Amino acid sequence: MAFDLLFVLLRxxxxxxxxTQGRYELHETKETKAKDQSPKDHSDLMPKLSIRxxxxxxxxxxxxxxxxxxxxxxxxxDNTRIRAAIPTINYATEQGARVIxxxxxxxxxxxxxxxxxLRPVAEHLSKLIKKPVAFAEDCxxxxxxxxVEALKNSDVLLLExxxxxxxxxxxxxxxxxxxxxxxxxxxxxxxxxxxxxxASTAAITKFVKQCAAGLLMERELKFLSRVITDPxxxxxxxxxxAKVSDKIPVINALMDxxxxxxxIGGAMAxxxxxxxxxxxxxxxxENDMLQTATEIKKRxxxxxxxxLLPTDHQVVDSYEPIKGQDxxxxxxxxxxxxxxxxxxxxxxxxxxxxxxxxxxxxxIIWNGPMGVFEEPPFDQGTIGIARAVAEAADRGATVIVGGxxxxxxxxxxxxxxxxxxxxxxxxxxxxxxxxEELPGVVALSEK
Length: 447
Hints:
This protein is an alpha/beta fold.
């Protein structure tokens, strides 16, 4: 009993010293030059036809892009996905193609819904590429065909939202054939939608002779394939988010690929912590996954994989997810979690422990936030990890970041240009890393 009391006392003292010394050193970021983000030649990992392999001059090139971006009051709020497609668009226009862009936006459920129109995207894209972007009021039929026929070499056209037609999500052959009739060659540059077997990502390839990957798709496949087939060690994976169940296939795949360290944060960490006997209290826990969590830890131990979980966290006594409200948060060691506490983010000690685990890493993949990132002050753990992976990239590690909140974090932290590769895929990235086939990739032509 006395020993236990002494242990707790020492833990409190060491933790207070840790925090008061201000060892959240990750707030200090150095000026660095943007690194060469071109991957080494891994042509064996890219067996699919590339847009670089096509003769585009004078050809009608149907390019499936991912312009599923937030729009408010008729204006694009975040143009990250649009900018990601520009290299492919510029390449096609420079080669003299007649460019036909197609995308989905939101979930209009097969009906024409004005707030999901892509017209604002056409206007925004025009400003980004500094040339006119024509807009078709529909993606099939006479409205689309007339616009396509009016195109000259190097012109750009954006079709209206594919999902205004229910046949798109049904992967309908008839609808796909109508899309295909608009073009001579097909290019898929929408990696974020490649895990869906939709008419514009899968069925359309039945009706076009040459179906190639765009530059963004090519880049995604090369970097992610490298992680799957030949990661440089030490190889570290950082996983976050709400549910362990969502990440089980990825965790197993990473272990199969001999990951050296697994760093787990976010709400999913509480399921693993509870399986170790810690009190999670009001934190999010998947109780039906406790046995699975135990099996993950046993496998990691058996295979010599270092599994790191949070040692401290930000908690609240009562929380209502209302933006802008004053929230009283406190940071405490995991073992001091009491009744009523709800964990919202990893603490400063955990950020430093995780950062230390990255110091010798040569390959790092990060997917998922470390806390309730969308609700400050619970974004600080995720931002801390963003700075840590950027520092690792500066040291020469290959760093791949995927998932909406993780990507937002590296942008918010001002380190996006230091990351080796930022993946545009959420579900597509996870499924690819888990070894699953992506319909939009499988459908492309082989070289």
